[in-house]
Amino acid sequence: MSTPQQIQSFLDTLRQLPKPNTPEATIFSIGSRGYYENPTTDILAFFCNNNGEHGLGSLVLEALVDILPEKLQSISCSLSTPPEREVITSSNKRIDLIFEGKDWVMIIENKIFHEQNNPFDDYQNHFTKNKEKRFKNKEAIFIVLSPSGASPTNFDNWIGISYPRLIDSIKHRLAEYFFKQPLNKWTVLLREFLLHLESIMSTSSYPEENIDFVIANLSRFREAQQLQDQSLKAFQEQLQIQLSTELGVIINVKPDNWDGSPVMRFAYPSWISNSDIALSFGSSENNVNRYRISCYAGNIVNEEDRNHADSILNTNDCDIAPWNELKNTFRCYRTYLEDFDRKEILKKLVEKLKLMDSFEKR
To answer: pTM for this one?
Structure first.
């Protein structure tokens, strides 16, 4: 078991670790399973359609063409047919996405996380077999979209494009668009889509030294948690004895938790309602308002009850205005304590319990 000095040294080191950055949440990232290849391809197809209802014209398609090899950057950024998804080849394989212009055909394989082991030769054969009838006099452009932008091995005519590069190109085009057009829901959705792609493409920004420190000190974390639990339990038992002695009645106490911070709730056993007094321990870094005593007056059924509670519990030491909870059936009051002073905490708890008991005897 570590000594208090060792635990203090451990906590000092913990405070010095870098704070990880929290990526901006998007409408695509709020789900628990992520947003991967199929829906990503669907959205990309939607925004690349220059005739789509998004009203952005060829903005995204132009951004894609901008990062093709120079000899292809002069192609027309206009589709002659709507984008096609999951196109089945003669061997029952599926091409992720096909764009078709007046004199070109773009066959796109979208790889978010999977390895590039697709039947690229079969995709090429699909173009070759349809060249005379459907794709006559059209140039084939084979593209693999992936996080790295690597081209598939042994397929020299496939162009590798990285998602980070595509994202930057779309951002550049979108910035120009913002100067010319008012904001609308489709530009917001496109920005959200780009932010989400950035989050799933980027290497984790979580500090490596934090991971190393936690793994190397799992036993210390466990000891610190045990010490916290034991100390809070001991303090709760001390307060229960002291309050019961001061008030001449066995005070009920039960532990609670608010957003990860410990709370102790005290009440007279004779109270009919669920009124209680809560002592909570916050976790603010600057120690401001860390210790709070909150009074919860229960069984409030009308304005008369609320006014009666205010007349007793809204004392001069209340630091914020009274508020209501649980569909206005509880009237609540709060007092902040500047420091962890056991005598002051005991004194305030005795005062509040007496006041609440007076309210309960209404």
So the answer is: 0.58
